[in-house]
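Sample entry (529 residues):
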Amino acid sequence: MSGKAVNAATVKAHFVGGGIGSLAAAAFMIRDGKVPGDNISIYEAMSVLGGALDGAGNAIDGYRLRGGRMLTSDNYECVWDLFKTIPSLENPHVSVFDETMAFNKQHVPHAQARLVDRNCHKTDVTTMGFSMADRLELVKITEAGEKELGSDRISDWLSPPFFSTNFWFMWQTTFAFQPWHSAVEFKRYLHRFMLEFTRIETLAGVKRTKYNQYDSLVRPLLTWLEAKGVHFIKDCTVTDFALDPEGGAFLVKSFDCIRNGKAENVPVAAGDLVFFQNGSMVDASSFGTMSSPPKALTKADSGGWRLWEKLAEDRPEFGKPAVFNSHIPESYWHSFTVTLKDAAFFDYMATFSGNKAGIGGLVTLFESNWLMSIVLYHQPHFPDQPAEVQVFWGYALHPDRIGNFVAKPMSQCSGKEILAELCGHLNLDASMVESAICIPCRMPYITSMFMPRASGDRPYPIPANTKNFAMISQFVEIPVDVVFTVEYSVRVAQTVVYQLLGIDRQVTPITANDKSIKVKINSVIKAFA
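Predicted structure, serialized as C-alpha cells:
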C-alpha cells in the first residue's frame, strides 16, 4: 500500500501504547521511511514496554511469564523481515533472525507426548481421530466465505463429536481456541497454518526464541530503537484525543495524558502522525503467589479499554470494542510459571515424554477438567537464570472448572494448589516440586480477539476520513492474516507505516501455503490418518 509521501526529515510520530506493534512500526519508520529516531515518541502506561511479550522475575522469587507466542519460519513473514535488521544482544554481528534460526537448527521440535490421558498414558496422535462426518464439516468451514460465516461460532459449524477428536485437542491447545470462538478466525487459521495441520501432532514447524520472547525479541528491538534516538515515555496514560473541529475529517491536534501523576497535553503539529494501540489482550492481567490466587481484575480496574471506547462512541468507523471486551467468561484463561531449584521434574518429564526440554512442545492433559498444558523450554529461559534452576510454563483453558485433584476452580487456586493438581495428573509425589515456586496469572481478555465478530466490529488500521491517525493492534481488520500472533501486530505496523509515509516498498507478502498442491495433498492424507 502507498499513500501521499511526507517529509521524512520533519515528520514526528506519536505512538500511544508500547506493545510490539508500536515498536515494530517505529523500526519500519526508521529503516524504510528514513524518519530520524529522535522524531519518534512512544507513550506507555506501564513501566515496561513490549506488551504481551513479557518476561520477568528472578531465581529467588520465581520467574514469571504471562504467555509465550508460537513462531514458525514458514509464516511470520513481517516478523522475520523486521528482525533480519535487528542485531542480537549477545552477538551484534548476527541478526535476531539468524540467531533464532541457528538456535532452532540445534533444537529441532518433535513432540512425542502431545496428548496425555487421565491415566497418564501418551495417546496415539498419529491419527486425527476424524469420522467421515468430521472431515466433511472441516472441509465445509474451510471453504466457506467470511460473509457466509458472519458472526457464527465454531460450534455452529462443527458437531459435538468433532470436539473430542485428537485434532481438536491439539489444534485447540496450540492456538487457544474454544468452541464458542469466531468461525471466521478458525477458518483463517486453517488456511494460514495449513502446513502446520500436516504436522500438528509433533509441532515440527514451531520455532522458539533462544530465551523468552521479551529477552529475545523485545529487548534487542528496544536497544536498536534507543540507539536510533527514539523517545520512550513510560508510566504515561493517554486519556483523550483533541480533534480539529473544522473540516469534518478526523484530525488529531493534541492528546491529553497523565504522566507520573500529572496531567499534560501533547500538541500534534500539522503533518505529524498519531498511532494508537486500541485494546490489549493482556489488559487487567494479575499475578498470584504460592499462597494466593491472582485477583479477578477487569477493564474497570485497569482502564485499558477506555480510550478506544471513547473514540468509538458515535463513530462506527472506529469499531465496536464491546464485541471483544464484554465476555470475560469466554475470553479468559490462567497461565502459570514454575521455577525449580533442581532437575528432578525435568528429568522425569524427559523420561516420560521421550523429549528433552526444548524439543517437546506442549504436553496437554486433555482429559483434565482444567484442560491443562505445560511446555518445558530449553534452559536457560532467562539470560540471568542460574545453571541449577529450571523454568517451565503452563496454562489451562477451563480455569472456571473444579479440578480433578484440587476441589476448587483453577481461578481460585494458589501456585501450591496448581502444582498439586499437576502432580496428580502426572502421578507424581508432591515432594518432587516441594521447593518449586509457581506463579499463577489471570488474563481476562487473553482471547478476546477470538470472540465472534461481524463486518465492521474491527476498524480498519487507517479508518475512513482520518488524516493523521492509524490504529495498530490485534483488534483491527486486515485480510487473510490471523490474530493472536506476533505476526499480526507487525504486519499491521508495516502496512500503516508504508501507507502513511508513501513508502515505495511492498508489505512483506503472506506465504500462501494453503495454495500449495503438496500441502493440500498432505493435508488430505493427514485428515484420513
